[in-house]
Records
---
Amino acid sequence: MTRLYLQDTPLKQDECITLPSEASHYIARVLRAKLGDMLHLFDGKNPQEYIAEIIDINKKVVLVKINSIHKVENESPLSIHIGQALVKGDKLDTIIQKSTELGVKALTPLITEHCDYKLTKERMLKKCQHWQKIAISAAEQSGRVFPMQINEPCTLQTWLDQKHQHCLILDPHSKTCLKNIRLQNPDQISITIGPEGGFTTQEIQMVQDKNATTIQLGSRILRTETAPIAMAAILQSLYGDF
């Protein structure tokens, strides 16, 4: 059944609502839905879905009536926050999509020494809006009612200065494996992933000065788009709901 995220549309039992223009276009022109078809709506504010029936439809407007409300409890008890170094191309799109499916709560793009990613403030804002749309689309597909939050990019220093319950830094040169550390009943874990060129010596020193935990995932070096997905799956298995 089609799921739609409606952030700014009030959703209430037995209410009739007109879907926003973009959603109406998608339902009417792309999916070619018909009268009587059912939709699952969610607003990202409550752990529930609103089951709605299409009661009027044309090429520009779709009117639905909310017939029932279902509680949804599929959020992981573990809050995973990824700090991901900026990468070129659509790699970050893939990271966001798969991380959403894996139950990650938030992602913050990081600006590091080896980041070859220079954009104006205006273009970066548009990229953040694009990334949030990717997260919303992935939430619609995966059944989540709370889309993953995409934060504004920040420097590695700013990221490390934030309050983290547990902050794990992936470093292929670390002598500590993830399987060798055990976190006692963690509620929140932050994962820090470097760029394709890795962290510099100065950045690793910065990490050590902050007493963050550097770890490696075995003897093979993972690509920057593979590491966060692997980490999220492992942490969900160890401490989450897998």
---
Amino acid sequence: MSGVVLGTTQLEECGACKGVWTDVETLNAIRSNSLKLAETDASTGPETKPVQFAPDVENIQYLPCPVCQKLMNRVNFGGISGVIVDVCRGHGTWFDPGELQHIVEFIRSGGIDAARRREQESLKAAQSAKKQTRIASSSIPAYGGNWNSPVYSTGWVDLLADAAGFLIRIILR
């Protein structure tokens, strides 16, 4: 791999396939710069829809991280971009040819904000479903009895101790 400069950012490019490697800090800088440009674009021009990208599903390969050599995870960048990147959580991200440009366009067109909104909506729906499940399950008493009855008010430990004592008394007779 050899060094290549994108704007003011130093990246590593594979001479054979033209893929690009970015470490975690570099990718964060690219995101930050792209978001700043998106804010500038939003204040000066019309709103644009997030760019969608069609991944190459024919040639799927799991790549090793250039740093640790462990296989990287394939992730849809931002959850909705359609750009499937290879990520080593501790070391960085691999972009196949053309993917980094699509990511920058995705960010500049408001894709990160759309992804955040979608994630927040998903979290709210999951929390609501969890709450509904808790409400439904708390209204069904165990063994058909009532949790407030004297049988259950002593607690599970006392109930089990009483049952064990009863069984021991039967065995010792």
---
Amino acid sequence: MLVIVAATSATADAAEAGLRVEGATFLHQRAVGPDRILVTAGPFDDAKAALVVARMRGMGWPASDRPEGGGHLTAWNTHTAPVVVADRLWVCFPWSESDRFDAPPVVEIDPGAAVGPGAAFGTGSHPSTLLLLAELVARLRGGETVLDVGCGSGVLAIAAVRLGAATATAIDIAPAAVAATTANAAGNGVGGRVLASATPAEEVVGLFDVVLANIGAATLRALGPALVRRLAPNGWLGVSGISPAQISTVAAALPGLAIVSAPTLEDWASIVARFDGVPPG
């Protein structure tokens, strides 16, 4: 088993030094994107690899174990390949070995950033997340303010900023999600434009050009009026995490909004809505 650490040109040597301390006899650096260097080290048995990954992550490095070869490596490469959204956005793990020098905007998500693998969040590959990522790709024009309710790993908020939004406010009642979003935003170089907090949706102030929520039908029905209150007059709201059969009941919990579209993917659905006439004052 090998260990792979995501570093930059300025930190790759430090990552290599840390891996050498762990007893690695094989060390290799490879550039896979603009200022993204992967440091691979080993060999380790499975238990030692897990320990090294935990130690490197404890020091703040995005790290993962990696098979040395064969079918396990093929499966690992498939699992870590970028998620491509309409050829305009890639989402991947920081340690993905896919070349991304000529890629469109890339969002790197460490699902266990700042909280450890045991509290891991999504990486953007789930159909409910893909539905909203596709809407961001299609609808963002640049300069928008975005509210991401139930931010998890921060993938939607970070993607919005990488696609041109001015700022994103990311909220989640789980402190681990706030920590993960903050760490991932910093890792993507947008820490100053993504503000993560545990503020409840009902207590958020201000209006946003885009309001996003990927949190399930029951929660969407409960929070629907609060989401509508945060939507700017000419903005749009995108919700996901529901089944096609739940579209009508969730839409009914969004007072004053009209459905623009309700795309589906596999067994999941989302709703895009705008104000039906003049928004409430």
---
Amino acid sequence: MKPAPFAYHDPRTLAEALSLLGSLDDARLLAGGQSLMPMLNMRLVQPRNVIDLNRVEELSYIRLDGEFLEIGAMARQRDIEFSDVVRETFPLMYEAVRHIGHRQTRNRGTIGGSLCQLDPSAELVTVAAAVDATVIVASQLRRRKLPFAEFPAGLMTPAIEANEMLVAVRFPVWKPGHGYGFEEYARRHGDYALASAAALLESDHRRITRARITVGGIAPQPQTLPARLEGRSPSEALFDEAAEACGDLEAMDDVNFTGEYKRHIAKAMVKRALHKAYGRLSKH
């Protein structure tokens, strides 16, 4: 399989990339290429121009900025996996990124590419939703910030203009000692997840003071569970109650599984993620 003909552009700076994006008709951005290259080869997309971001070094960074972890759009998933900053400040992401494909996939895949593809099963999409990340997008004329909840415009469609590109993502850092857990179910390791769950907990050693549970993989976008855990003592019954809330979530049927079956799997993932998070609270 070969792609349809296109003009290839190889910018070295962000300013050059934005200039190309603003001036070229029908352009697609090439980041890690894990999604775009198969789509090009199968001619599912046939852009006139492809702008390769792989030499724009200013987009490849991971840094702590106060209470936020900021990651440039071209940071590789493999770099995130081996980042001490990520492991120490955002262990949920460290755990989730190791579920992404295989080592070869993570060597090339980027956080920006993953978030812009917005695959319902993508681990980084679920993590970004779990902590209410802020997406920074830019064009030649402006730079703006979007809460991640406003970033998806539809199934696998980001809410950015044709002349804009994602340049960075900012993740709020939970306080040291919080509990975290990421679980997903796939038929084989490295396959797309049928359902995933991310759980975050903070506690005063008796009751849960802060909680966030997000389910991915079963609907067009990740969904935050409406379960209210704050002010309640952790228990098996409480975690069962939280998992049962998956029964009210949106879930898509596909050629292999019904939405109802996906909800069933999501319940198990939520319960496992909560147990992990509780076991990792600093009091333990």
